[in-house]
Amino acid sequence: MDFRPDEMTRAFADEAAAFLDEHVLPAEPVLAQQLAAAPGEWGPRPIVRELQEIARERGLWNLFLPPGPHGRGGGLSNLRYAPVAEITGRSSRLAPAAMNCAAPDTGNMELLVHFGTPEQQERWLEPLLEARIRSAFCMTEPGTASSDASQIGTRVQRDGGEWVVNGRKWFATGAMNPECELLVVMGKTDPNGPRHRQQSMVLVPRGTPGVTVVRPLTVLGYDDRDHGGHAEIRFEDVRVPAANLLGEPGGGFAIAQARLGPGRIHHCMRALGMAERALDLVRGRANERIAFGGPLARRGVVREWAADARVQVEALRLLVLKTAWLMDTEGNRAAMKEIQGIKVAVPRAVQGILDRAIQLFGAAGLTGDHPLAEMFAAARALRLADGPDEVHAASLGKAELRLSSSTMEGAVQ
Amino acid sequence: MDFRPDEMTRAFADEAAAFLDEHVLPAEPVLAQQLAAAPGEWGPRPIVRELQEIARERGLWNLFLPPGPHGRGGGLSNLRYAPVAEITGRSSRLAPAAMNCAAPDTGNMELLVHFGTPEQQERWLEPLLEARIRSAFCMTEPGTASSDASQIGTRVQRDGGEWVVNGRKWFATGAMNPECELLVVMGKTDPNGPRHRQQSMVLVPRGTPGVTVVRPLTVLGYDDRDHGGHAEIRFEDVRVPAANLLGEPGGGFAIAQARLGPGRIHHCMRALGMAERALDLVRGRANERIAFGGPLARRGVVREWAADARVQVEALRLLVLKTAWLMDTEGNRAAMKEIQGIKVAVPRAVQGILDRAIQLFGAAGLTGDHPLAEMFAAARALRLADGPDEVHAASLGKAELRLSSSTMEGAVQ
Amino acid sequence: MDFRPDEMTRAFADEAAAFLDEHVLPAEPVLAQQLAAAPGEWGPRPIVRELQEIARERGLWNLFLPPGPHGRGGGLSNLRYAPVAEITGRSSRLAPAAMNCAAPDTGNMELLVHFGTPEQQERWLEPLLEARIRSAFCMTEPGTASSDASQIGTRVQRDGGEWVVNGRKWFATGAMNPECELLVVMGKTDPNGPRHRQQSMVLVPRGTPGVTVVRPLTVLGYDDRDHGGHAEIRFEDVRVPAANLLGEPGGGFAIAQARLGPGRIHHCMRALGMAERALDLVRGRANERIAFGGPLARRGVVREWAADARVQVEALRLLVLKTAWLMDTEGNRAAMKEIQGIKVAVPRAVQGILDRAIQLFGAAGLTGDHPLAEMFAAARALRLADGPDEVHAASLGKAELRLSSSTMEGAVQ
Amino acid sequence: MDFRPDEMTRAFADEAAAFLDEHVLPAEPVLAQQLAAAPGEWGPRPIVRELQEIARERGLWNLFLPPGPHGRGGGLSNLRYAPVAEITGRSSRLAPAAMNCAAPDTGNMELLVHFGTPEQQERWLEPLLEARIRSAFCMTEPGTASSDASQIGTRVQRDGGEWVVNGRKWFATGAMNPECELLVVMGKTDPNGPRHRQQSMVLVPRGTPGVTVVRPLTVLGYDDRDHGGHAEIRFEDVRVPAANLLGEPGGGFAIAQARLGPGRIHHCMRALGMAERALDLVRGRANERIAFGGPLARRGVVREWAADARVQVEALRLLVLKTAWLMDTEGNRAAMKEIQGIKVAVPRAVQGILDRAIQLFGAAGLTGDHPLAEMFAAARALRLADGPDEVHAASLGKAELRLSSSTMEGAVQ
């Protein structure tokens, strides 16, 4: 067992940290200005393009995509990517997009790498890897418990040489970005098949007739318009060629599962970055802000929670890293319990850390003057993204209570 | 000791509940439409005026103002008002405004009743009691710990027959409402006086030259534009007549304290209403939403937290009611520890209840489709309104640890 | 609604407080000495008898027994008894016994009052009311979930003019006290009857052949020998006359329920007294103990938790009082949800308060030098006494989620 | 970074686990019997000797002592020892003693290895390494905040060729074990010296005239008599030869600090083993115990907390392992923040896990029938051992809020 990151990990993390300090953090007020200047507009602002060019030059591009036989990406293993992803979480509105490592495109690119045909890859994967287009993932539906895949109502029916999609999706993040050209849609192709073989995944160009963006959704008051927002979308007799099926018919559930594992760990890595950013901000504030005769940093209550936050972040980071290592060495499936564990624990802890950081900043912490409120909303949303905490905790607890079970994978005992 | 509310309490609570069910709840989607129809506009929407007329007819008007020698208001004692205020919290964006019981106007009206001259009352109090105008309270300043009154930077200087105001305020709620005509401003008239005699309160008509609304602030992504938002305001050589001083010179701190007691208990009452609304919503959802083979209401985890929420609400409501009773019978000052206690405990508990309610609603809970997200943001903000929790907890804890101290006022032992 | 206790309540509470200060607290070290002097002995020490005589003279006797048509006791209503019970909790090892208000005798006396025949009352109730004998309650069984009454394994079979008891019970508190003469035993008389009519309650003189105390149990290391400990008891062909049935055949479950309501509220009242005692101790300690240059009372962390503890105690006390009032005015059954609520919330909160109080006392807090460790163990045990928290919370949550349900009884809305 | 334990780690962990399963767990009821058979006796029971012989044969002996230039012990590095120590925590009353890895002897042996003269080592260290004698550590004093070393009241004065010790110590664990021959005593040799140079450490044979065991202390009702209990000791003009000073005069504080680092991490390792034991017990119970129609393992609430416990244990174990690795690679001093972090977080989490495990076992969980209650008391005591949590958290928080600071040592960023 060795807790020292290897040279390559350090090199990428250092580069990412330098990029963050030199370019991304200074770009935050620029983004704010560009957003204020065109309040009605959806999609990324010019500063993102500028950052993307620099990131690409510095080799900080598509790092999320683990190397593999597919010959794409040239990215990092999960273990090496973790510190980089954490750094992007420190400026979560800008850095992931700047380095082409932002959800949901990352997950969609992974799907295309692993399940796409050469034609699908050429048409969608290449421009996504270049950040020339964006994509959205359409799984969640209004009115059903999305964590229960058997409840999906969207139909994908074969009609001659085409698939016909009918249904309604929401929380399609990024779909209102004008650059978004691809919708990855999950629907039922065989409603009477076995529970986990009823669903298929189909690639729908956003401009296809019958696709209607019904409305944008807000998340705790944020519309996230620079990321293309979160759309509710109606699919009415939307027709795509048979070749647009991703993977095999009935493979939708398995594909979705494959997508969610890495997605969840990426979310956790970035969430830890948010916590570190919050602690940086707190450190500054606690030393500078004077109340009742002394800086806040001298208060016992503030110290205690800083200690608490630090220990939580350190322990959870190690669990995320171990999960990444397990995924790299044993495969995503072998790391299922760990992924569930961090999915439940990390966003919850980070929300708590941000909550207290806001408290320390006073009312200012709730405004757009600091990134805390925005990160707080993001962390809160993570507890529901890819399924609510409770579903994962219940599944993990069930496994834990199985008589054969003992500890997680890879533990000494 | 008797826990049964008296007839008058029941009568007003029943009337308010009926008004809520018959008029306010059905008006919520109307407000949403009217907001969507004029997204750029600040201030109340037409539906509020409609509700105000009904509320007034039904005698649900200005109930927040306890009866007194002042001969105004004809409102209710704190103890009788509590259930009414709680009911308004169930629809916190509409009901308080509909019944002319919304902050910050309530607090400002109280100030004018208790400290205003007959001329000030005629000019400002009367139209406020009629809801013909609105007001804002300008105490908090950017860049200082507002809970430490000695740090206030705004200057209010005498120059001949006028007061000249210079400074910067923020979180002036309601100030961007076009109907807002009065700013109650706290500033230092005597920066070298004793710590709590340096400040005075002055009445500034919003249209006075030198008053500039710098920008609106957001609270967890919400701009609360229908309430006139939360403004940052600059005061540059703003001149008002000498007669616009509220109370006596140097009395600003004492006046602010007098204002905050009732304000805090009103916040707590309404917050409990938010919790009850959340529990209503949860009850519906948990019975209707099916996941993995059964309604959520059958899940142990859901039941446990419903139990937990119920007990918290019941216990804290009683503490709020007792605080109200103490204020009525012994005066606001005698209830100081109780007010601190509920100020710390209620918003924290309600935030937690809303957090779990959102979790039960899944991603939908974060959107504008349900009032949960908005109420969550409001409860979160309450933990900072009128001073952060920590300041109140520290003060209460200090008192609790005093060797002479034992329990709160009015306890048997 | 009126939060002021009436004169009678005050009078008894004042008397009890004076008795506590003048006699009970000074007796604590005496009890410790008497326990150390005869370590092998079970049962009360001489000091308890001395205190009982004083208590009786001062009218502090059997106050737990609400007045009723039964013409016994002459005690207080639940609402008036609450402050007295809380005071006894401040010295929970001595005061309840001193005032003949200690479990399980209180519950057993109530049973005899409500369900006993005149003969049973004469034989058992009179001497219990005089504290000439003690009793134990035998419901819980090793190896079964006692909160599920259908699982009771003890059999009570009719054989001619006798009942024959066979089975095994544990946590029979007080059974090793040599003064204990009565065992109230719950067993199945009709194992095939309807779920809640299978059980009956039978009165077994402790000396009956076939009754064997198997062993004493410890609770977190305490054997509570001065209270007669907690016994495991074997019943082998134990024969008692038919007249020893308490209430009607098949009425055991209903009788047990009737017993548990008041029992639970008494436990909660005393638990609040433990919390107040802890806060008293903390107040002394925090002002006297110097570390790193100042008294602990000046530390922010200590102040914050003192505030937190104070608010919890105040809010939960009000809920306990309201529950008592409901029991008095509407009956125990109408207060079922409230009883469940306090049963879950109070011991948990008090355990937390004691945990932090111990922390403040350092290692000394864990020893017998202060009553904190003992009270901590008692509060911990309360979370399991009369059924684990979880069972009550689940039941309360189920009720809360019922579509018809809203708030607890007696609430305004 | 590599999370796979090396071969040697696995080999020792496997051996320890086998020893635990084959010998230690079956010995638990034997110990209980031997304790019951001689209730008045202090010190280890015969079964411990039997286990020691087996452990020694199997090479499971003195593994706590990291290899070093001292040429003693032949133990394991901290990182390799961690899984072994965790396994001993699963049977914390027997396994550490069986493998000669029990506090306080481990810490005392470390002191003798690092600071002892050859003569001291020959006289004390050799027999301790052989488990022929036992030792106690006398630092904490009644009536002072022991975490503040400047408050130590015990005097160690030079008088000719001797040191004269006067003072009072408590929580001298093991001192009533008849095999205990050595007391390591900290006292002030230079009360006017610099704050951290006033103290010295002196070796006092327990039989020295003037040493009086005043009384045993209990910890949450446990006297831990088989470990020699926790003694209060009076030192009155206790004279030892000058050669009995450990290390240099004025070096007491530094020596104590050196002792506490490894001591704290050992405590944490064992505490994690307690948590794993609890989870094992829970797993069995939850599957076997039926209530209200199904096994507890099917309840959502039970599953949720099992998940929660699992994630806490996994994350904290990694933090403990990383701390061990840091101590091995960078030295104990470099790991100071990590040691503080685990010292605060691990016992708190483990106490919580044990608390809920007890709840699942019902009242049985509080008795001696399962090891839960005993482990709960041990975990609770750990939060005070070697200084209360709050002192460590405050120190860690202070460091975290330093402007220069960022993360813990060895983190990537």
Automatic annotation (TrEMBL), chains A, B, C, D:
An annotated GO cellular component: cytoplasm
Domain of life: Bacteria
Cofactor: FAD
Keywords associated with the record: FAD, Flavoprotein, Oxidoreductase
Acyl-CoA oxidase/dehydrogenase middle domain mapped to chain residues: 136-238
GO biological process: fatty acid beta-oxidation using acyl-CoA dehydrogenase
Protein name in the entry: Acyl-CoA dehydrogenase
Keyword Flavoprotein: yes
Source species: Glycomyces artemisiae
InterPro entries, A to Z: Acyl-CoA_dehydrogenase, Acyl-CoA_Oxase/DH_mid-dom, Acyl-CoA_Oxase/DH_mid-dom_sf, AcylCo_DH-like_C, AcylCo_DH/oxidase_C, AcylCoA_DH/ox_N, AcylCoA_DH/ox_N_sf, AcylCoA_DH/oxidase_NM_dom_sf
Family membership noted in the UniProt record: Belongs to the acyl-CoA dehydrogenase family.
Single GO term (MF): flavin adenine dinucleotide binding
Keyword Transmembrane listed: no
Assembly description: Homodimer.
Segments forming domain Acyl-CoA dehydrogenase/oxidase C-terminal: 250-399
Domain Acyl-CoA dehydrogenase/oxidase N-terminal: 8-130
